[in-house]
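User: Quick sanity check before I run a bigger batch. Here is a single chain. Can you write out its predicted 3D structure?
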Amino acid sequence: MSHLPHLAAYALMGIVPAQHLEFAASGLKDTTRIAASSPNMWSDISLANAKNLVAVLDEMTKTLASYRKLIIAKDEQNLIENFKKAKAKRDGIERVE
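Assistant: Done. Predicted structure follows.
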């Protein structure tokens, strides 16, 4: 799990067109801060943990596909419910520290 945010940050920066970077707000900068990490180191880490990382990437892909379907269907209620569940988990991180 701990490696997924790095891949997500690299992927997010990979899809942002360079010409749009000047319009990027602080949310993009905060979300992708870890994409400033060493590409060589994260390549090594990713390949060394390939089996587990691929499984987590598959779960992330399924979740994003689910969000995509809800957005296409304009299913606000279920989209909000998914976001609420994610927020509740996120809120729980502070209690773990």
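The two ends are 17 Å apart (CA to CA).

User: Great, the batch can go ahead then.
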